[in-house]
Design a protein that fits this description.
Elements (H helix, E strand, L loop, with lengths): L1 H14 L7 H19 L2 E8 L7 E9 L2 E6 L2 E4 L4 H14 L1 E12 L2 E11 L3 E10 L5 E10 L5 E9 L8
Antiparallel strand pairs: 1-2, 1-9, 2-3, 3-4, 5-6, 6-7, 7-8, 8-9
């Protein structure tokens, strides 16, 4: 149950970051949508820290690997194959882009581990959550290198802060 909760929060965080309500918003958010898509379609390894007031501000570390059409998640010290595939994530993202309201804006140029990036702010509103965040996108590859997001969910999951970094080299299945 813990694994499902953590993975659901991670996927929600990923999915809630790319919707567009108007053509104008879609244009401003296109680099963000592209970067979010690349996390899933490019072999990637994400390292996330989730903080939630509902669990007394405790932090949870979550790792997810997308590789060879599969999703792996590290939970309680063990890698597990997720039933949610990268294709499932992409389908949901496309649906969210069509149905939700998003605004994105260039914030600044910055370096992440010596790599030049463009930082975008994002605001997304859906029926189930509101998010505000920043995403660092490589100027050379268009890959997301870092993400900071505050999410406000209705119901049991409440508020959450997600801090994530992404790696793309030497990504292999963990098993």
């Amino acid at each position: 149950m813990f694994c499902n909760y953590v993975f659901t929060l991670f996927v929600l965080s990923l999915l809630v970051m790319g919707q567009a309500a108007t053509a104008r918003a879609a244009d401003a958010c296109q680099p963000v949508y592209n970067a979010l898509t690349k996390i899933v379609i490019t072999p990637s390894h994400s390292y996330s820290i989730q903080t939630s007031p509902l669990v007394n501000g405790q932090q949870r570390t979550v790792e997810v690997i997308y590789v060879q059409g599969k999703t792996y998640m590290l939970a309680r010290g063990r890698w597990m194959l997720s039933p949610i595939t990268p294709t499932d994530v992409l389908k949901q993202e496309l649906e969210n882009e069509k149905q939700g309201k998003s605004t994105c804006q260039f914030v600044r140029n910055e370096s992440v581990n010596g790599e030049p990036t463009v930082v975008y702010s994002m605001r997304r509103e859906t029926d189930t959550a509101n998010e505000d965040g920043l995403i660092w996108i490589s100027k050379t590859s268009g890959l997301a290198l870092r993400k900071e997001v505050d999410t406000e969910n209705g119901g049991m999951s409440g508020e959450m802060h997600l801090s994530a970094r992404y790696e793309y080299s030497n990504v292999k299945p963990p098993m």
